[in-house]
Design goal:
The chain is mainly alpha-helical and 687 residues long. Among the domains are: 35-127, no CATH class; 135-223; 300-417 and 429-457, no CATH class; 563-686. It has 31 helices and four strands. Strands 1-2 form a two-stranded antiparallel sheet. Strands 3-4 form a two-stranded antiparallel sheet. The longest helix is centred in the middle third of the chain and has 28 residues, at 326-353. PPR repeats lie at residues 189-223. Belongs to the CCM1 family. This is Pentatricopeptide repeat-containing protein. Residues 61-101, 396-424 are annotated as: Disordered.
């Protein structure tokens, strides 16, 4: 069947002659006269340009219009004179400058069109079709899926659950966002919008979350209190908090507008203050803190005071790149401590009234502010714990006669005889007013069981007490608090608690207690610094005749706990064997050269297995050395070389000082030569 008009015309011409060209289809002739300029879609851009074939079709259309003016179909219409007359009737359009400009414009456009596109256009015109846009097809599919979902998610609760579960299990955020947008045209879906904002905040896309929040308002979806909580909480965890703070403050200040349906509450204010503390913007933080009220939704809670105290500590401690002088740093610390004590007075007052409750985090925040101070502040940490947790002080107060008997070093600082009421250390502010100390108070009582509402201690408080004891260089209170909290109150110490207590024992030169603590310590808590601290503790406890034995026990624990021994700990173990006194078994009071030699030989024998493993790790990358970077491998190689040189010097010491029998010199020389050859090979490999 012939469906193309051109084919029909050629077919009829072959049958009835040239008259078929003018009797084909009146609809085709009418269309050609109306739409004389067919537009072609430019797939490279967005313009529609005339092609060369279309330009020819226009000229053909002009001739067609000249011919079709006659309705009788006489020979004059088909003659050359008739065509010339028809062409002359339309000649005025192209006369003069306008016709030349238009012709030039057509020629320019003809040359701009690639021949391939012209052929494609002719083929598409002959077929009567156009290629389907993939983007439009995809949009239609998405719209169909959205409408299909909305049939079953017409309830806001169901839609919110679907949005939350979809964002949790997949990252198809664009589809979920379009679904919420479509559903928002007919109902309120604030919870679904909150899930979108929360998802973007969890991914760290704060700008996208704020844009979604603004779009939410434009679509008449009024944000609720949880919307602002999600925004502020996510912004507080943003990595670039200095850039995020101005944007969050703008949103926070907009909540005070008259047309705002949601006013800030304590949660919102705490989140914004946390951001201010991270950005070290103390003025903005205290400006927000001044907006707290005594009662109501804007009353401060324990978290509010915790944020303020932590901000004061960070501001007082400064940073590693601070430009302040030591005197200025000391003044800042003094101001922060005085200010924190004044805040603590308000905390205790609210606690006694029952307006807030005190937890471990708040007490630890106040205690760590005191840690940046001086000796009087460190001593007040014990009073702070007694005041808030009802744990008695394990050491008398500073300045009392009982304290002087326990701590002789404080006698030189407190020689002046004072009245007992005035022997407590006083801290005076710049204006001359005395800042109150941490005195015992009457705490609120629970209504249900009548038990006093003291704060419950935990690992954080144990770490605070151990750090205060370390600053005061006192072992007795540290041991007492450790026993009270871990054995009486059954608090499970964490890894940092063990390391803090090890540092206290190192200061006190308690090697035997260090070994006992390591035997109680869980194996998963042990790491390189654990044994490094323990070995240094034995190194300080050189007067103890059992020092080398304690160091050997620590070495055994390290070899059983770590996949790769700690090199500084091994070097410290060898130093202990060389420097620690060794006594004859028959005379435990007089050091013996032979006993010293046996002690050093024992240490060298114990180090050989670990040394072989370290050489394998250096050459073959076994164990955990595979994951080391080039810089770490160089550091590891340097430590191994230092240990090797120390072992060589130990062999020299044995032979030079005649600490062993002469018949052992040959074997010792062989061992020394192997170590020296290893060092030489390493130096030669480096070039």
């Amino acid at each position: 069947m012939l469906t193309c008009h051109v084919c029909i015309r050629h077919f009829l011409q072959n049958i009835i002659g040239d008259s078929a060209a003018f009797t084909a289809s009146s609809r085709f002739l009418l269309t050609s006269t109306v739409n004389t300029r067919t537009l072609r879609r430019n797939y490279i851009g967005t313009l529609y340009e005339i092609t060369k074939s279309q330009y020819r079709r226009e000229n053909a259309g002009i001739n067609t219009r000249g011919i079709s003016n006659a309705s009788t179909g006489t020979s004059y219409e088909r003659s050359q004179a008739g065509r010339d007359a028809a062409r002359g009737s339309n000649r005025g359009r192209f006369d003069g400058r306008d016709s030349e400009l238009e012709g030039n414009r057509y020629e320019k456009k003809v040359h701009q069109v690639p021949p391939r596109l012209v052929q494609r256009k002719q083929w598409l015109d002959s077929r009567g079709i156009r290629p389907i846009s993939k983007k439009e097809a995809k949009a239609k599919i998405v719209d169909r899926e959205i409408q299909q979902h909305l049939k079953y998610l017409n309830d806001p609760v169901k839609l919110a659950d679907f949005v939350r579960n979809t964002l949790r299990t997949s990252d198809n955020f664009d589809f979920v966002q379009e679904l919420v947008r479509t559903a928002s045209k007919h109902a309120l879906h604030v919870v679904s919008w909150n899930h979108l904002v929360g998802y973007l905040m969890s991914k760290g896309k704060m700008n996208a979350a704020i844009s979604t929040y603004n779009e939410m308002k434009k679509r008449a979806q009024t944000p609720d209190a949880y919307t602002y909580t999600t925004l502020f909480t996510g912004a507080a965890e943003h990595k670039d908090f200095k850039v995020a703070l101005p944007k969050v403050l703008n949103i926070y200040n907009s909540m005070f507008a008259e047309n705002s349906k949601v006013k800030p509450n304590t949660i919102h204010m705490n989140c914004v203050m946390k951001m201010c503390s991270k950005a070290m913007d103390m003025d903005a933080m205290f400006a927000i803190a001044s907006q707290f009220t005594e009662k109501g939704l804007k009353a401060p809670n324990n978290l509010s005071f915790t944020i303020i105290l932590n901000a004061l500590r960070l501001h007082a401690a400064g940073g590693p790149r601070t430009v302040l002088s030591p005197m200025e740093m000391r003044r800042h610390k003094r101001e922060a401590i005085v200010q924190s004590r004044e805040i603590w007075v308000e905390v205790i007052d609210r606690w006694r009234k029952g307006d807030i409750w005190i937890d471990e985090e708040l007490v630890a925040a106040m205690g760590r502010v005191l840690l940046v101070g001086e000796e009087e502040d460190w001593d007040d940490i014990f009073s702070l714990v007694q005041q808030t947790m009802n744990i008695p002080r394990q050491i008398p107060k500073l300045g009392t006669p009982a304290r002087q008997r326990i701590d002789p070093a404080s006698q030189s600082r407190d020689r002046d005889d004072k009245d007992p009421k005035e022997q407590q250390a006083e801290i005076v502010a710049e204006d001359g007013n005395r800042v109150p100390h941490f005195e015992n108070i009457t705490v609120p009582v629970s209504k249900e069981d009548g038990i006093a509402m003291y704060a419950k201690p935990g690992p954080n408080i144990l770490s605070l007490l151990l750090q205060a004891s370390l600053e005061l260089r006192l072992k007795a209170p540290a041991t007492s608090y450790w026993n009270v909290l871990t054995k009486s109150l059954l608090i499970q110490p964490d890894k940092e608690n063990y390391h803090a207590y090890l540092r206290v024992l190192r200061v006190a030169r308690s090697g035997t207690e260090t070994v006992q603590l390591l035997q109680e310590m869980p194996r998963e808590y042990m790491e390189s610094k654990t044994f490094r601290i323990s070995m240094s503790c034995c190194g300080r406890d050189k007067r103890n005749p059992h020092t080398f034995k304690n160091a050997g026990k620590i070495l055994d624990l390290m070899q059983m706990s770590l996949r790769q021994p700690d090199i500084p700990a091994l070097r410290e173990y060898l130093d202990i064997a060389i420097t620690a006194p060794a006594f004859d078994p028959t005379d435990s009071t007089t050091p013996s050269k032979q006993a010293q030699g046996k002690q050093i030989l024992r240490a060298l024998d114990r180090l050989n297995p670990s040394f072989i493993n370290l050489k394998s790790a250096l050459h073959f990358g076994v164990s955990s050395a595979k994951a080391l970077s080039d810089h770490a491998r160089k550091g590891m190689a340097k430590d191994i070389m230092d240990l090797t040189k120390r072992m060589i010097s130990a062999y020299d010491l044995l032979m030079d000082n005649a600490l062993v029998a002469r018949d052992m010199y040959i074997d010792l020389t062989k061992q020394r030569s192997k170590l020296a050859a290893f060092v030489s090979r390493y130096r030669n490999s480096r070039g």
